[in-house]
């Protein structure tokens, strides 16, 4: 079983509330979403594993069980072309839960006209594979969001 932790501090809103149909419809996979605090912060790895995909606005870490977890920093933030994001790791790196991955400023993302809401998605999973899914309430980086069996 994989425990997936929050990569950010903020308020959990659940995937259904994400302002993007690909995420809100769970087309990429089940999970939840965080409306982050509006201050410069660092997104951390939600699991121990290997960084298999890395962009300024999003990263995927795959754990030893082959579970890939996508953290997407904001919605449509790819259009910012990395502006306001500082990547702190490299693709292929082995990381541990809580390790700093990307420095960013959710308030600046919002000021640029994008939503800072961050989906945290269990890639290629079924909703039934997730237990203890948090979809509401305040959360700190490192707190458990869900377990994946």
Kindly describe this structure.
The protein has one domain (2-129): Glucose Permease (Domain IIA) (Distorted Sandwich), CATH 2.70.70.10. The mean pLDDT is 97. It starts with a strand and ends with a strand. It is 7% helix and 40% strand. The protein has 149 residues and is mainly beta. Strand 5 and strand 6 form a beta hairpin. The strands form three sheets. The chain has an eight-stranded antiparallel beta sheet with strand order 9-5-6-7-11-3-2-13, with no helix packed on it. Strands 1-14-12 form a three-stranded antiparallel beta sheet, with no helix packed on it.
Briefly say what this structure is:
It is built from two helices and 14 strands; from the N terminus they run ββαββββββββαββββ.
Q: CATH class, please? A: Mainly Beta
Shape descriptor: globular
CATH architectural category: Distorted Sandwich
| Alpha carbon gap, first and last residue | 5 Å
Number of domains: 1
Helix/strand-derived category reads mainly beta
CATH structural fold name:
Glucose Permease (Domain IIA)
Helix content: under 10%
Largest sheet: 8 strands, antiparallel
Weakly predicted, low-confidence segments: none
Order of helices and strands: EEHEEEEEEEEHEEEE
Mean pLDDT across all residues, rounded? Answer: 97
Beta-strand content bin? 35-45%
Let me know the number of strands.
14
GO molecular function: kinase activity
Protein name: PTS system N-acetylglucosamine-specific IIA component, Glc family
GO cellular component, one term: cytoplasm
Pfam family, one: PTS_EIIA_1
Keywords:
transferase; mainly beta; 40% strand; single chain; 14 strands; PTS_EIIA_component; kinase; 149 residues; Dup_hybrid_motif; eight-stranded antiparallel sheet; kinase activity
């Amino acid at each position: 079983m994989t425990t997936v932790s929050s990569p950010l501090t903020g308020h959990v809103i659940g995937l259904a509330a994400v302002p993007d149909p690909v995420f809100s419809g769970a087309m990429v996979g089940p999970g939840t979403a965080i409306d982050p605090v509006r201050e410069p912060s660092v997104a951390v790895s939600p699991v121990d594993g290997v960084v298999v995909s890395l962009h300024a606005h999003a990263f995927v870490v795959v754990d030893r069980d082959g579970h890939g977890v996508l953290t997407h920093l904001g919605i449509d933030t790819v259009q910012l072309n990395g502006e306001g994001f500082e990547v702190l790791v490299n693709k292929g790196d082995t990381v541990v839960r809580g390790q700093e991955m990307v420095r960013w400023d959710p308030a600046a993302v919002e000021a640029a006209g994008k939503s800072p809401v961050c989906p945290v998605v269990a890639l290629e999973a079924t909703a039934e594979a997730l237990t203890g899914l948090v979809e509401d309430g305040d959360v700190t980086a490192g707190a458990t969001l869900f377990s994946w069996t």
